[in-house]
Amino acid sequence: MQNPASTSPTNLLKRLVALVALTILYGFAIIFGALLRHKKRTKHNRVIVTGTFHNPNWFFAHVAPITESSYGEIILVCDEVVERLPNLIYFCPPSWANKIFSRAGAKAIWTFYAGIKYPADLFMGYHIFPAAIISLICGRILGAKTAYQVTAGPLELEGGGWHAENKLLVALQKPSALIEKLALTVTRRFDLVIVRGENAKKYVLNAGYKGNLEIITGSVEIDQALFQLERPHDVTLVGRLSEYKRPDRYLKVIQLVQQKRPELKAILVGDGPDMGHLKQT
Predict the structure, then answer these.
(1) What b/e string do you get for 100-109 counting C-beta neighbours within 10 Å, with b at 16 or more?
(2) Which among 238, 236, 235, 228 has a CA at the least distance from the CA of 264?
(3) CA distance 203 to 194
């Protein structure tokens, strides 16, 4: 959970730096998104995807299906190789680039380089900052279509995304109406926006998005044989322990149910920045 910003000079300075930096970065994305459009050209049957994958399950739930779509090559710009898959080409910035340009800066450079080396029809980013912004700017410059995967729903954009784990967004420390407005303006510049459910769809449409909007829910494959086994727990939640996943709601629901069904056994499996707080809940 994120705490409200304090009035200490250090925190005020961090917030000011974050506001200025995000305003400039979002501003560039808005300008490129408005002035440049994708060009009609030869189809390359290639997609460039940029994102951060906190665990292999997230990778298999979102990237693996794209590689199985039979569209063509998928160029993945991320921190490190997760697993080799058919039609998937990794384009990971080296550690020295991350140190010099920061992880976000290195991804931006490598995404643009990937677009030159592997001309693509579509640039797609997971999370508005920095991946989606990188995809929008690089895609527009190189004349390709762009897509934004809203992986965390409205929470990813509300208040400027201050709940996120990205250091620059975290530095906001509390909601920012300015950054939220800029983020929504950037969202309206994409050719395609993909959300996880109806609530996120309504939020994006209410924000004025007029392009293609699709719902693709997250999923995992489950071995059916597991349903035949005796289980020590009645309810299990597996996920990253962060504000985006709302594990706190899971715990509250379990506590309410156990008031009437004290024999209910539940378990929470995962790791993340909210681990300490949830243990105290």
Answers:
(1) eeebbebbbb
(2) 235
(3) 12
**Residue showing tokens 């063509």:** 72
Residues 6+ apart with CB under 8 A from 23: 178, 179, 182
Give the per-residue SS3 of the chain.
CCCCCCCCHHHHHHHHHHHHHHHHHHHHHHHHHHHCCCCCCCCCCEEEEECCCCCHHHHHHHCHHHHCCCCCEEEEECCCCCCCCCCEEECCCCHHHHHHHHHHHHHHHHHHHHHHHCCCCEEEEECHHHHHHHHHHHHHHCCCEEEEECCCHHHHCHHHCCCCCCHHHHCCCCCCHHHHHHHHHHHCCCCEEEECCHHHHHHHHHCCCCCEEEECCCCCCCCHHHHHCCCCCCEEEECCCCHHHCHHHHHHHHHHHHHHCCCCCEEEECCCCCHHHHHCC
For residue 249, what pLDDT is reported?
84
The answer to whether the peptide bond before residue 130 is cis (omega within 30 degrees of 0) is: yes
Query: How confident is residue 2, by pLDDT bands cut at 50, 70 and 90?
Result: very low
Whole-structure pTM value: 0.79
Nearest-5° Cα angle at 125, 121 to 130: 135
Which tokens in the block code for residue 75?
A: 């160029």
